[in-house]
Amino acid sequence: MKAFIFDLDGVIVDTAKYHFLAWRNLANELGFEFTEEHNELLKGVSRVRSLDILLEIGKVELTEAQKQPLLLKKNEEYLSYVYKMTSDEILPGISELLDYLDTKKIPYALGSASKNAPLILDKVGLLKRFTAIVDGNDVSKAKPDPEVFLIGAKKLNKKPEDCIVVEDAIAGIEAANAAKMMSIGIGDAKLLSEATYVLANTSEFTLEFLNKILN
Questions:
Q1: pTM
Q2: Which positions are catalytic?
Q3: Can you tell me the distance from the alpha carbon of 33 to that of 197, in angstroms, rounded to the nearest whole number?
Q4: Which residue among 32, 67, 82 closes a domain?
């Protein structure tokens, strides 16, 4: 039997907008503009590396000691948005997809680099539905390294080749492929061309598509 491993941001919920607001406000305080185009460079990247990219964009040089309070400030602002999240923020089609997997007794895990993943799932009412959670506290290597998905497979008691990964980032698709797992990309077909299948958005998880990949 197959199992699913889901990325969090851009797949289950869209918290990228909250990251963007927090990074943009930080950039404004440092005296430069941070655009949505710039924000694309931070997709699937750790908080520490994201700050370095932000500072490169603004041509701002800081010591490691000066960076620490900025990282904390950004995270506190981001969390202030997260604490207000509700089930309304679950992306279209995801609740129905999880219902379908439950009906078929197909287990599913979360595979996310975010240390806030359990909190976010709790806020949107999905935490107890996942068989396993792999978050930023469990991994030492970021995607495109397959570590997060291999740990997910282990927690699900599944072989990697029996796992189906749902991802919206190129690094995530590369990680799934490196783990020898089927990959479903959510988003731009050109950007995610290395995925086994690509859906424009989460509402395209139709019964027909699910039956096709599970059989």
A1: 0.90
A2: 7, 9
A3: 36
A4: 82
